[in-house]
Amino acid sequence: MIGDSQARAKFIGEVINLITGTAFIVIGIVALVVATIRRRASGVRLVFFLGVWIAIYGIQQLNDTSFLIELLPRWMQVSVPYSHALITYLTLVAAALTFRELAVGKLRQFVTLQALAAFLIAVFGIGRFVLTGEEYSLLRLNNLVAAAGSVVLLIIFVFPSLSRQYLVVKDRRVMLAGTIFFGAEALVTNLLHPLGYHPDSIWDDIGFFVFLSSLGYVALQQVYTGERRLLSIENELAVARQLQFSILPTTTPQLRNLRIAAVYEPMTEVAGDFYEYLPVDEYRTGFLVADVSGHGVPAALIASMIKVAVQSVVSFASDPSELLRRLRDILTAQLQGQFVSVAYLWIDTERRTARYSAAGHPPLLCWCAACGKLARVESNGLLFGAPFDGDYPVRDIPFARGDRFLLYTDGLSEPENTQGDAFGDRKLEQILIDHSSRPAAELSLLLLNEVRAWQPPFTSQQDDITFLVIDVL
Q: What is the DSSP string of 213-269?
């Protein structure tokens, strides 16, 4: 009878292990799926490591279910001891990495060292098991590391001042309640064992489940907070994008004997590229293109400053050198260590002359229809933001009917293909030569498509792209 009752109790315990182990594995997988779906959200690493920890615990439960193991094929039964050793040592690694995502400052450093120590113990422990068959040779050391970490974390959780200093837990009470419940259950179980009482293993599972639930609550709370913050940032960037587009020209100037096509493709929501027209009358206008170093909001703010600064130098539109010099003087104090390349082209269709000057910018490309040649015009001073107080050289360029100008930022020439080769000036120049008869609007679309086709498939844009195609009719 005693044997039957023991067998029955063992069977019930293993059925419980089977159910709880499967449940923990499913919960762990769900957590990993959530972490994958929400990978952009803040705090998602906590969800990921928590999912790994829960899944490992579930696998450990199944490893202790003997009748389930007996149902496995022979080759899988042989691997069970190795799986058991692997899980035994890696549990602490997963736990440490989970708590590392909650820690800051010196506590984060401590938990990082604990995770590293647990990993090294796992490597040597598993290696020794493979070589000698001693599964638990380093288990005491593993437990010592776990105990030291548990004591430190418990002290941090108990004292609110330490929790605020070393943890990024928004609701400390939930985490503390789960920890106390789990600790109390483990303490009672360990005290009852020497007295001859052996509580069902289900209590271990309940305690661990409550503890993991509190951790899961904290993790999901962080993800939710991170997503709200991300959504807020995305909304602000959308507004910033609208504002930035509002500072760009809404229409091209109506000029005699000129056709203009403009392309502006930011890499991110906001960009550091900028272009502007400075029309004086129906025969004369200036074209300015600028490229702020870096990307995103800081570069976009500088681009907005350029817009304001340009309005104050419109009276110098016919003098490229003076216009750039004054722009430089206005902006230098505001750049805060950033640099700006600028190109400025002044065109007078009545006199059929153009004047060009630049500050650290890619060359102006000029197509001569009569001679069938493409020329690179470089007339550069130093970038805005560099220590330079000299004048900017100016090139006078005569032009005739059928000629074409291309002003562009380096986002047009620098994209790389799968071999790491840049689109480059040669590729750009060849397209202009091969398609010299195409209208400005068609050529601008062709250039943009060629650059996109040059980059590897599914690769995001590598830089802001801005260029102006100006045709002389």
A: HHHHHHHHHHHHHHHHHHHHHHHHHHHHHHHHHHHS-SS----TTEEEEEEEE-SSS
Helix%, strand%, coil% for the chain, nearest 5: 60, 15, 25
Q: What does the domain layout of the chain look like in residue ranges?
A: 2-235, 248-472
- Which residues of the chain are modeled with pLDDT < 50? 1-2
What is residue 214's predicted lDDT score, i.e. its pLDDT? 77
Q: What is the pLDDT of residue 164?
A: 79
Q: Give the helix/strand (H/E) hosting 355.
A: strand 353-359
Nearest to 119 by CA among 85, 91, 159: 91
Choosing among 1.20.1280, 3.40.50, 3.80.10, 1.20.1070, the CATH entry for 2-235 is: 1.20.1070
Structural fold of domain 248-472: Phosphatase 2c; domain 1 (3.60.40)
pLDDT score, position 2: 47
pLDDT at 404: 92
Inter-residue contact 57 to 88 (CB < 8 Å): no
Q: Round to whole Å and give the CA distance between 427 and 405.
A: 16
Q: What residues pair up with 217 in beta bridges, in sequence order?
A: none
Q: What is the DSSP string of 161-195?
A: HHHHHHB--S-HHHHHHHHHHHHHHHHHHHHHGGG
Nearest residue to 372 via CA among 405, 402, 349: 402
Position 321 scores a pLDDT of 93
What are the distances in angstroms from CA 73 to CA 33, 82, 408?
29, 15, 67
Does pTM top 0.70 for this prediction? no
The pLDDT of residue 318 is 92
Angle at 60 between CA 58 and CA 63, to 5 degrees: 115
Give residue 233's pLDDT: 60
At 459, the amino acid letter reads T
How would you classify the pairing of strands 353-359 and 380-381?
parallel
